[in-house]
Amino acid sequence: MRTGILGGTFDPPHNGHIALAHAARSALSLDEVLLVPASRNPNKEHPPCASARDRLRMCSLAAAGETGIAVCDIEAQRSGFSYTVDTLEDLCMVRPADYWLIMGADALRGFMDWREPHRILRLARLAVAVRDGQDVKSLVEDWDPADRARVDPVPMPEMPVSSSKIREQLVRAAPGTISVAPTVLDYIRERGLYQ
Length: 195
Fold this sequence. Notes:
The protein is of the alpha/beta class. The chain has helices spanning 15-28, 52-63, 84-94, 105-109, 117-123, 136-139, 145-148, 163-172, 182-191; strands spanning 2-8, 32-37, 69-71, 98-104, 124-130, 151-155. The chain is built from nine helices and six strands, in the order βαβαβαβααβααβαα.
């Protein structure tokens, strides 16, 4: 089984997350991509606005009807920070597969500052979204050759959307399209999230 892991805060999950999951699935012939909402992301200064339960539910709504995309609650069940290395070790024990950790080029730049990056690279390959002819190999040119060989580019069009911008739109009740699935938007409104 070839499985992609797309982790993050998903506060809220948006159309860019789903597009990245599909792009990685297509580019790397993955059988599935798991959305893995973090209990608390160690790379974010502030805790999430929505609870882990709400973010997990929104991810389930965003993934509903999307071929090859599912949700995994392994990190949402933990208290405290969610570290990728712990998640991958747990997943490798309970559901063995060939894993790809999906991320954007911005996350790749700081990857070597993550907890146990070399262990992560033994547990999974990195699937890195690249845009507009960006050369992912130039971002890892100072890495050890064995680590560099575990990075796979995922071509993807530019999508100027972020969870923080969506939260701002919701707080300001700004007009215009909000880049989330209609069911996610309904859930946000029903629960009064991001007010």
